[in-house]
Design a protein that fits this description.
With 307 residues, the protein is of the alpha+beta class. It folds into three domains: 65 residues, Arc Repressor Mutant, subunit A, CATH 1.10.10; 147 residues, Beta-Lactamase (2-Layer Sandwich); 52 residues, Winged helix-like DNA-binding domain superfamily/Winged helix DNA-binding domain (Arc Repressor Mutant, subunit A, Orthogonal Bundle), CATH 1.10.10.10. 52% of the residues lie in helices and 13% in strands. The chain is built from twelve helices and seven strands. It has a five-stranded antiparallel beta sheet with strand order 4-3-7-6-5, with helices on both faces. It has a two-stranded parallel ribbon with strand order 1-2. Strand 6 and strand 7 form a beta hairpin.
Length: 307
Amino acid sequence: MTRVGPLGKIVEFFRADYPDGVPRTGHVPLVALQRRRLCDDDLDRIAEELAALGPPIRHRHVDGAVRRVLREAACAGDVLDAVRHLSDAGWLIADAAGQVGDANPAVAVFDEVCAAAVDLIPGADLADVMLARDDDVVSVAGTSDLCDRLCELRREAGDGPCTHAASGLMVRADDLATDGRWTRFAPAAVDLGVRSCLSFTLYRRAPITATLNVFGFGTGAWDDDAEALGLTLAAHAAAAVCASVWGARMDSPLGDAERVSQATGVVMARHGLDDVGALRLLHRLAAEDGTGLVDAARRVIATSSAG
């Protein structure tokens, strides 16, 4: 007796109704009624749509893209196939709870950067990377569960240091209890025991931003050393974003960080200072001229080139 496997049974099923093969015309073949599955071209179209949307990307965004490509409701298997394909390609995709897989290359860098921030920056107690599009905010690589709560505060308040940092390179708050810039976020953060913050912009493309955020439980802890270390770590994280498939279209201020680093080197050579002393001098020049640190760095580089 010949044993028929599952594939053989499917073939026999089709042959029973179509002994001479599936007709080209005149009938509606049963295979035409089957659900269309995602092909490589479909997945490429989904990736292109999500790239235009920009991070943070959630499962619901993948679901919507799949439905538009298939022109029908997406089943759970379709969405999971798309999420798996995109994740394997390096996309950073958050689930409904805002959790992101640890296997993503950029997340691995964010983990290292945030851990280093807490370990190296005096006064730092926790750190994370926040990805935001309007009020949709995701916390990645947080060193504490408290980072998730601060992310929720940012979403609920609609303001905060990470929002402010999007307009420049860095925002510093020495005491959130007395800082009047964030009337909703700051009091709620203080209630959680968070009193100070440094936020560094990793990328931006309105209304999309990402920041490296370093939080402290104490006040007045930040100095030039803290800013220099944070800026260096932020540049490392920003480079990971620029190298990723999901962040390639973002406008990163990494170039600004490179200008500050280059100007610091010029000042070190010119005045015989170490890196911290050179950065402190750059800050003083910026304060005396009433400009930002990046503008002061540009002037130092320009005078060096002219000389």
